[in-house]
Design brief:
There is one protein chain. The chain folds into three domains: 62 residues, D-Amino Acid Oxidase, subunit A, domain 2 (D-Amino Acid Oxidase, Chain A, domain 2, 2-Layer Sandwich); 54 residues; 101 residues, Orthogonal Bundle (Helicase, Ruva Protein, domain 3). The strands form two sheets. The protein has a three-stranded antiparallel beta sheet with strand order 1-2-3, with helices on one face. A two-stranded antiparallel ribbon has the order 4-5. It is globular, with a radius of gyration of 22 Å. The protein is mainly alpha-helical. The longest helix is centred in the last third of the chain and has 19 residues. The model has no long low-confidence stretch (mean pLDDT 89). Helices cover 37% and strands 9% of the residues. The two termini are 27 Å apart.
């Protein structure tokens, strides 16, 4: 669902994703570069206020499972509002050979990479050769574009052809079929796979990035933390002290995503 115009001329989306609904976005200037930017209370009120007229059942703060924010790098322009600045990236090649890329978005990262390589070629830093990113498949992408897994768990199907490795873990260790929390769709096998094949080394790696547990339900992610720590410790040969430290550190992170 799209709300085409807000009181300040923005657009708001309500998007079904991973069994929940994402509502956003807001856009305010950030005064500092923080690893975990806080969500301003006014931003939450803003979204709730603008989505309410379009819902048959109003939602409130108690319905919010998780909140999250990020920093978007923008190249300075003539506009005086961050929401109006261009999302395009800019590449600069200095006389010393330093390539700087500024701006851009996650969704254009491959184009950014190609443009950076082309800048290096033009600057004589690399031999002239066509970039192949447009034809290189991402990991898990099937050779046949019509590849499907009929009836497969939608969360498992996200692994593409690598889903077989997760299923093998579940077959060899049936206990890994259990979800890490009743409110989350992810299994123990996905945690073990994240450690063995996706370079996960912390609870945050697993619950925030390899899976989206923290973004889906902050409370559930916190409940799952001890179980995830135990599975990871077994794989990484870590001790109980490591597990406790990981759970404590992750708990601090959860505070930025959970509304009391």
């Amino acid at each position: 669902m799209m709300i085409p115009k807000t009181e300040d001329g923005r657009v708001i989306f309500a998007i079904p994703w991973q069994g929940v609904v994402l509502i956003g976005t807001t856009d305010i200037p950030a005064s500092a570069s923080l690893m975990e930017p806080n969500v301003d209370a006014d931003e939450i009120d803003y979204l709730l206020r603008h989505i309410a007229p379009y819902l048959s059942a109003p939602i409130s703060r108690k319905d919010i499972l998780s909140v999250f924010a990020g920093l978007r790098p923008l190249v300075t322009g003539k506009e005086n509002k961050t929401s109006k600045l261009s999302r395009e990236h800019h590449i600069d090649l200095s006389k010393s050979g330093l390539i700087t890329i500024a701006g851009g978005k996650w969704t254009t990262y491959r184009q950014m990479a190609e443009d950076t390589l082309n800048a290096a070629i033009r600057g004589g830093l690399l031999p002239a050769k066509e970039c192949v990113t447009h034809s290189v498949a991402l990991r898990g992408c099937p050779a046949d574009s019509s590849f499907e897994n009929p009836g497969e768990d939608p969360y498992l199907s996200e692994y593409g052809t690598d889903s077989e490795a997760v299923r093998t873990l579940e077959s060899n260790r049936p206990g890994l079929r259990e979800t890490i929390d009743p409110a989350l769709p992810y299994t123990g096998a996905m945690v073990v796979y994240a450690v063995r094949s996706e370079s996960a080394r912390t609870i945050e790696d697993v619950l925030s990035r390899r899976t989206r547990s923290l973004l889906l339900d902050a409370k559930a992610a916190l409940r799952a933390a001890p179980k995830v720590a135990s599975l990871m410790a077994s794989e990484l040969l870590r001790d109980a002290a490591w597990e406790r430290a990981q759970v404590e550190t992750f708990g601090e992170l959860v505070r930025t995503h959970h509304l009391a």
